[in-house]
From TrEMBL:
<comment type="similarity">
    <text>In the C-terminal section; belongs to the Mrp/NBP35 ATP-binding proteins family.</text>
</comment>
<keyword id="KW-0411">Iron-sulfur</keyword>
<dbReference type="InterPro" id="IPR000808">
    <property type="entry name" value="Mrp-like_CS"/>
</dbReference>
<dbReference type="Pfam" id="PF10609">
    <property type="entry name" value="ParA"/>
</dbReference>
<keyword id="KW-0408">Iron</keyword>
<keyword id="KW-0378">Hydrolase</keyword>
<dbReference type="InterPro" id="IPR027417">
    <property type="entry name" value="P-loop_NTPase"/>
</dbReference>
<dbReference type="InterPro" id="IPR019591">
    <property type="entry name" value="Mrp/NBP35_ATP-bd"/>
</dbReference>
<keyword id="KW-0067">ATP-binding</keyword>
<dbReference type="InterPro" id="IPR002744">
    <property type="entry name" value="MIP18-like"/>
</dbReference>
<feature type="domain" description="MIP18 family-like">
    <location>
        <begin position="3"/>
        <end position="64"/>
    </location>
</feature>
<comment type="function">
    <text>Binds and transfers iron-sulfur (Fe-S) clusters to target apoproteins. Can hydrolyze ATP.</text>
</comment>
<keyword id="KW-0547">Nucleotide-binding</keyword>
<feature type="binding site">
    <location>
        <begin position="106"/>
        <end position="113"/>
    </location>
    <ligand>
        <name>ATP</name>
    </ligand>
</feature>
<comment type="subunit">
    <text>Homodimer.</text>
</comment>
<comment type="similarity">
    <text>Belongs to the Mrp/NBP35 ATP-binding proteins family.</text>
</comment>
<dbReference type="InterPro" id="IPR033756">
    <property type="entry name" value="YlxH/NBP35"/>
</dbReference>
Length: 341
C-alpha cells in the first residue's frame, strides 16, 4: 500500500460540504502509511457535525475493505482557500477521463515534434478536445512550429494555455526570453513539468499529448512516474540505426508499464511530384522492424514533404487538412483513437 493508492481509494468519496471528491476539494492534508496501518488528516469546512461522522465511517469502511487493519483519522477545520499537497491536479486526479499520450523517440532529428504537432491538430479536426505539452524543456519548438506568437495569459493564480488550430498548448518557450537556452538540472525539470499540470487551466480534455525530449533522460523518467497510465507512440525513421536506438525508448516504456500503442515511421520516403518515383532516402524497413521487435502495430509511414506555407496564417510545420500528409495524419489519428479505446 502506498500514499498514491490511498488517494485513489478515496478519490470517489465526496466532501459532504463542498460536493466534490476529497481529492478535488483538497481535503486530504496528510497521509502516513506503515504496513497495514494508515493515518489521515482531513480538513473540512465544518467539524464536529453529523456529516463528519458519516464521512469518517465511509473512509474507514473503504480503507479497511482495501486491506488496512487499522485506520487513524484526525479532522480539522479548513481555512479559506486551504488546499492539499496530496490533492491531485484535475488532469492527474484518478477520476480524470483524460487520456495521456507521450510521443517518444530514441534520438533527435526523427521529426518527433512534427508528429506531435500534426497528430494533435488531426485529433482536434476530428472533434476531440486536445492539449499539447511541449515537454522537451531544453529543445522546445512547438510554438514556433505552430506559428504561435502570443504568450499565455495569467488569470487569478492559473495560466491559460494558448490555443491554435483547436489545440491548447503550453511550452517552456513561453517562459524564456529571446530563445534563451535553459540550463537546469534534473529535479528542476520535474518541477516545471508538474507546473504544466497543476498551474495551467486546461479545462475538460479528451487527450493530452506530450512531446518528450529524445532518449530516456530525466523528463522521460518524470513522465513515467507522474503518469503511470500514460500511453506512448514511438517515432523513428526507416534507418536501421534510428530504429535500433528507438527500441531503447520502447523498452523503457514497457519496463515502466506504459502501454505503447504504435510506431510511426517518419521520413519513410521522398516521392517526386513530377514523376511519382519514390526515393528511400533513409533506407527501408526500420519502422517495421521496430514494430515487430516491440510487438506493437505500425500506425503509419509518413513521407518527406513540405507543408504549404501561408504567409497570412503562418505555421511552418502544420499540414493543411487537405494536404497529402494532412490526410495521412488524420488516418493515424483515427487509429490512435481506436487503439486508446
Amino acid at each position: 500500500m502506498t500514499e498514491e493508492k490511498v488517494i485513489e481509494l478515496l478519490s470517489h468519496i465526496q466532501d459532504p460540504f463542498l460536493h466534490k471528491s476529497l481529492t478535488e476539494s483538497g481535503a486530504i492534508q496528510e497521509i502516513k502509511v506503515k504496513e497495514r496501518y494508515v493515518s489521515l488528516k482531513v480538513a473540512l469546512p465544518q467539524t464536529g457535525t453529523p456529516e463528519q461522522m458519516m464521512l469518517q465511517q465511509e473512509i474507514v469502511n473503504v480503507l479497511k475493505g482495501a486491506g488496512f487493519e487499522s485506520v487513524g483519522l484526525r479532522f480539522e477545520q479548513r481555512k479559506s482557500g486551504q488546499g492539499s499537497k496530496n490533492a491531485a491536479p484535475a488532469l492527474l486526479a484518478p477520476e480524470s477521463k483524460t487520456e495521456f499520450i507521450a510521443i517518444a523517440s530514441g534520438k533527435g532529428g526523427v521529426g518527433k515534434s512534427t508528429v506531435s504537432v500534426n497528430l494533435a491538430v488531426a485529433l482536434a479536426r476530428l472533434g476531440k478536445k486536445v492539449g499539447l505539452i511541449d515537454a522537451d524543456i531544453y529543445g522546445f519548438s512547438v510554438p514556433d512550429m505552430m506559428g504561435i506568437t502570443e504568450r499565455p495569459k495569467v488569470v487569478g493564480e492559473t495560466i491559460q494555455p494558448v490555443e491554435r488550430f483547436g489545440v491548447k498548448v503550453i511550452s517552456m518557450a513561453f517562459f524564456v526570453e529571446d530563445n534563451a537556452p535553459v540550463i537546469w538540472r534534473g529535479p528542476m525539470l520535474g518541477k516545471m513539468l508538474m507546473n504544466f499540470f497543476s498551474e495551467v487551466e486546461w479545462g475538460d480534455l479528451d487527450y493530452v499529448l506530450l512531446d518528450l525530449p529524445p532518449g530516456t533522460g530525466d523528463v522521460a523518467l518524470d513522465v513515467h512516474k507522474m503518469l503511470p497510465k500514460c500511453k506512448e507512440i514511438i517515432v523513428t525513421t526507416p534507418h536501421a540505426t534510428a530504429a535500433f536506438v528507438a527500441a531503447r525508448a520502447g523498452t523503457m516504456a514497457l519496463k515502466t508499464d506504459h502501454e505503447i500503442i504504435g510506431v510511426i515511421e517518419n521520413m519513410a520516403f521522398f516521392e517526386s511530384r513530377l514523376t511519382g518515383e519514390k526515393e528511400y532516402v533513409f533506407g527501408k524497413g526500420g519502422g517495421e522492424r521496430l514494430s515487430e521487435e516491440l510487438g506493437i502495430p505500425m500506425l503509419g509511414q509518413l513521407p518527406l514533404g513540405q507543408p504549404d506555407i501561408n504567409e497570412d496564417d503562418f505555421a511552418p510545420s502544420v499540414y493543411a487538412a487537405d494536404h497529402r500528409l494532412g490526410r495521412a495524419y488524420e488516418d493515424i489519428a483515427r487509429k490512435v483513437i481506436d487503439q486508446v479505446k
